Amino acid sequence: GIQEIHTDQEMIGKISAAGQLMQCSASLDVLFLLDGSYSIGKGSFERSKQFAGRLCDALDIHPDRVRVGMIQFSSTPHLEFPLDLYLTKQEVKERIRKIVFRGGSTETGRALKYILRKGFPGGRNSSVPEVMIIISDGKSQDSTAMPAMQVKERRVVVFAVGIKFPRWEELHTLASEPTEQHVLFAGDANDAANGLYSTLTGSVCSTNAPGCKVESHPCERRTLETVKELAGNYVCWKGSKQPNAVRASLCPFYRWKRVLIKHPSRCFRTVCSDPCDSQPCQNGGTCVPDGLDKYHCLCPLGYGGDSHCAPKLSLVCSVDLLFLMDSSAGVALEGFLRYKAFLKRFLQAVMGQDSPMNVGVAQYNDTVMIPIEVGQYKDAFSLMKRIDALNFSGGGTLTGRALQYVAQHGFRSAPVFADVQDELPRVVVLLTDSKSQDPVAEAAKYARDQDLFLIAVGSSFMRAELTEVTGNPKQTIAYLDPQDLFNRIPELQRRICSVDNPEGCQAQSLDLAFAVDASAGIGLENFLQLRGFVRSSCSHFSINRDVTQIALVVYGSKAHTVFALDTHTSNSAVLQNIDRAPFLGDSASAGRALLHVYGDVMTVQKGARPGVNKLVVMLTNGGSMEDAAAPAQQLRDNGILVFVVVIGDAQRDTLLRVAGSPNYLIHISSYEDLQYYQDLIIERICEEAKSPVNLCKPNPCMNQGVCILGSGSYRCECHGREGPHCESRVLRGDSPRSPVLPLHSHVQRSSGGLQHLSRTSRHTRRH
């Protein structure tokens, strides 16, 4: 780097942030001298212009405050615009952009003499402070020392800003004293803007903002110079006084080398207290400053209940909950510590002050211990502290024995009152990554017969054994990698509370589209399984005009709508027509499929209902997803969620970009396992059906109509059209209106779609 401030990266960030936000507001004449010589070159000249425009952002340009003028100099100075010509920041920056590179020799001294002779063109005759900002590489071909001194004697504050590879000695000659505060580098515009503001603060500009102060930092500037160095002595041949004779001799050999000459200095910069210095984000959240006094928190999964990352989840269900944690040699110390961290993160997320659940922890290897009895700790802090003290055991993995033991001894907590038995549902969450060395099926059945609700969490390769424990694939949570384990916290919370809370979304209004990969990469046999999955899933919804509408799209290189949202109005009709979905057998383009859903399925013309949540479920093997990220984002931007269900090996990063979040990506190892995930997928769809909806996303207005939100309603602002959704042309003599549609109004449909309502509206107006 040409300039380097010796401080830590956090401080550099603060200097840059302050440089972007500070603004000098005072009565001030600022004249830029822009070096337009050949030594600068056209490229660096354009960068000088951009830099000058950036410095203008740090000036409060106004007729009564800061005025700006500019001179370009090379062989001769040329007035680009005087100080009294452009009086707004926008005008000044626009004029700077239009300045043309002139070229020529570097005559900085002549430009300074021009100022001495003419003064500040269009200035206020020294009635206000005058500031000159020279942007140059400091390689003048004439003398600058005397004219620079004379300019400064007239009480002009001179800043010298280096561009390209500047010669700092000359810039120090040009700049006002103390030179450390008046020499800047254009390579870092935010730093230079900060330096300019810091120097002018207190003397010319208004005082610093609260919480901001000017600090001195050691810095170093470097100049790229060409130097001559002795490379060595080599044999050469010289003439002799004797005729026809030469003699050998040693001759010095020199070479030219480009080196960086260092110039130690000090840089004075304004630093403001960072709103993130107080570490306002809790529970591992990351604080991101928004200006000088605002911030926002990026919260980990399970947090975000408020702006400071308070727990977002909560176990609203009352349960006795026992975590059974594998502490055998099979999981190793690393796996045991991972489960401890997961357990703490989960409990921090769900356990509030008035949490209705009682929690205990057991750990097992070839024996079982219950170091934390169910209900022993009522506050999260004490519970976390006790979990921290749990130690790894090693030994064998007897999961069956552990399940039988906790069924008999795991829930011995005393009743709440002496005469009232605690009748809370009892839930056991098994955390294991190791195959059991004893049978689990019989022990798990015994536990379930004791009315224990079993949930198993483990790595994906353990799925079969975990399902054998739970007796229900829906109660098995298999993760792909360590990070994915922590992404399953919301799912575990739902599983625990489903013990006494039946699921389903029969009464939720929803516009749902299935997009099924029917390409050759899937194959006919697997496509038939996907089609069967869609048929089975549709039976979970109440399909009619008022509740759930379902569309089906299959895609290969192109997308094909099997039926639209408003095609079928009953479960039986939908189920009968799913089998009509054809296998296409060509290449796949998921991006085209999502664009088709956006433009031809989730539209008012095709039956999409304003004020109803909209969701696309994409079933794919993960191939040809590279073009799908942008269309998926377009759908999300218009209020349509995208769930990606991928079967088999696929690039997780690409799939995450399409899904937008791990919460909306479900990875299944094989087509045979697809059936086990149906309840989970339906559950997530139903959760989204309950979320708040934006009535204007996607836009319900046709023919370029603009949707305008009201209180619990919206209206379409039409141009050359009329009707509630701008669906009809304006007939001669009619005055187009935009009726306001309430949140729960449903447009009456007939075989003519929306035309029925449109004709009624026109009839009413004529009447």
UniProtKB/TrEMBL annotation:
Region annotation Disordered: where it falls in the sequence: 737-767
Keyword terms of this UniProt record: Disulfide bond, EGF-like domain, Repeat, Secreted, Signal
Gene Ontology cellular-component terms listed: basement membrane; extracellular space
Protein location: Secreted
SUPFAM superfamilies in the cross-refs: EGF/Laminin, vWA-like
Domain EGF-like, first and last residues per copy: 273-310, 692-727
Ranges of residues in domain VWFA: 29-200, 320-496, 511-685
Record PANTHER family: COLLAGEN ALPHA, VON WILLEBRAND FACTOR A DOMAIN-CONTAINING PROTEIN 2
Binding partners and assembly: Forms monomers and multimers.
Name the UniProt record assigns to this protein: von Willebrand factor A domain-containing protein 2
